[in-house]
Amino acid sequence: MSALRMTARTTWRPGPAARGGLLAACFAVAFFGPELFSEATVRTLMMATVMGLVALGLNLMMGYAGQLALGHVFFYGAAAYVTGILAVEGTSTNLFALLAAGIAVAVLAALVTGIPGLRLSRWALVITSFFLVELMPSLVDLWPEKTGGLAGLVGIPRISLGGTPLETADLYRVAVVLLFLWLLFQRAFVYSAYGRILAVLRHDEVQLQAVGVSPYRLKLVCYLLSAVPAALAGVMIATLDGLVTYEAFGFDTVILVLAAVILGGQRTLYGPLLGALILVYAQQETLSLQNYTLLGYGAFLVLAAILLPRGLVGTAIERLPRWRTPYLIDAGERGERAAAALGPEQPAALTVCGAAKRFGGNQALGGVELTAEPGAITALIGPNGSGKTTMLNSVSGFARLDEGSVTLGTTELAGSASAKIARSGVGRTFQTPSVPAGLTVREAVSVAAFAGRRAGLISTVLRLPRWRAEERAIAARAADVLDELGLGAVADEQALDLPLGRKRLLEIARAVAMRPALLLLDEPASGLSPDETERLGHLLRRLAGEGTTVLLVEHNMDLVLGNADTVFVLASGRMIASGPPEQVANDPGVLSVYLGAETTDEDEVIA
Ligand SMILES: Nc1ncnc2c1ncn2[C@@H]1O[C@H](COP(=O)(O)OP(=O)(O)OP(=O)(O)O)[C@@H](O)[C@H]1O
């Protein structure tokens, strides 16, 4: 009996019902706040709700997308001013109309600042968003007849619902409902294919492009979405006291929101809310020390960052890993699920003509010709520095050719962006494997399917059947590739914890899970055990059998000579030989240039 209880205790993991129940309980307590708490407490809760919404927006951008942006307080202010102006001028006090107007203005401001800010550099967004906050008083002062100028906009009537102006308690309840609706949206968003791909964005933009996703577009989508909760907060705050002043949207608020995210825990769903609650409560309790507010928030920010780098909620989740929400639907046991197809939907040949690439005075590629056929493994070998990686980079768009063309089937690839090339059916691995933090092996492989998914944002957050079917298909494909490479047993371990050789296998699995028409592998066997190398050879043969065009750059001659159908040999950027493995292995030019200058004994060289 006690053994049974022990098992139950050690394996219990909170399912969706337990998580949902906890969230519903928190919602109920917050919603019935006016019945449960004093008026002053409800006001504190209202302010925490509003600041929590802004902090949730900041966390989506800073925590989940990994981009520091300070503009959310401006979006919050812009929505508040628009709400105030529309209400004062009598255009509308209707809740839904004001929410629509507030969101539209905030998203427009995010679009106008996000496009240049995200296009330029990492710091450009910080600067443009910082500039926005700085701009607020000047903007307000430009139209004093509408905004009330620096004195503030006063006499704003209450928001109405069904024609009835909302009492303070009801306004608070509406804010709580909006907060929970946003939380449900954000939870569905971050625990989905979007969350997995954001982990890659935070980690390495090159990897993101390699799976066909444009970092710029992904960041812009996040920035626009992150403006929405800030706008909800702005609409709610505008009519609470019937007053809007630019001072409420200055640097004190920026620091408060930033501190709330850091203290509560970046990249946690509920952390920013907890941080906002603590800081707003502390602020209300120390009103007499108002002059020191900024100093206080700053101190909180520094202390939290040093003592609790993962924040309160982040630290708690670290200690209770079973509460970590999984990203992926289970694919089922191997015996139960149908074998996933790994080959491409449309096989295509690779043709490289006259490829030339120069780095300063160094001619890395000098007019190279190469073809790789579907259903075959083509190897590209050559001594160090002969131009093999440059060739793979040129095909996959990570390097731009000076001259020449690269076609896959009938599609010209040269000159296109790497993410677009990946979407055209080119999967690749890199010499140095790089795996994102925070994802399991299975999840890290499944990011391969992001660019090709058909379920959009709405299907994803509403968990519609189309999304469910796609997630199952992704999970099945990931599981199949992992089994092929002998990683099935570690599928649920953290990808970052794998040893180097297995990280390389993971990267191969991810590229294969894209079902690319052309698979480019850059020294995939380096660091693998003989057993793992054999499995890799087996997988490559299976892929070729299913119609994939495999281009393999490799120094491991067992893998090359044992599996390749055709071998191309590069030396100093020029193709010096090509043909079946046994012909290339006996080519005297290859033996002297590549395989070992003075010896011509083939057996010795191959050994
Ligand atoms: N980004 C770059 N900037 C300058 N030179 C480069 C760059 N990338 C490659 N090169 C040079 O181009 C030549 C070809 O390099 P490349 O990495 O393609 O060779 P490789 O055959 O892949 O070598 P290895 O087997 O060591 O990986 C080398 O002389 C290298 O120094």
TrEMBL record:
Its main location: membrane. It is a multi-pass membrane protein. The chain crosses the membrane at residues 21-38, 44-61, 68-88, 94-116, 171-199, 220-240, 255-282, 294-312. One of its GO terms (molecular function) is ATP binding. Gene3D superfamilies: P-loop containing nucleotide triphosphate hydrolases. Keywords: ATP-binding, Cell membrane, Membrane, Nucleotide-binding, Transmembrane, Transmembrane helix, Transport. InterPro entries: AAA+_ATPase (IPR003593), ABC_AA/LPS_Transport (IPR051120), ABC_transp_permease (IPR001851), ABC_transporter-like_ATP-bd (IPR003439), BCA_ABC_TP_C (IPR032823), LivM-like (IPR043428), P-loop_NTPase (IPR027417). Residues 350-597 form the ABC transporter domain. SUPFAM superfamilies: P-loop containing nucleoside triphosphate hydrolases. It is found in: Cell membrane. The keyword Glycosyltransferase does not apply. This is Branched-chain amino acid ABC transporter ATP-binding protein/permease.
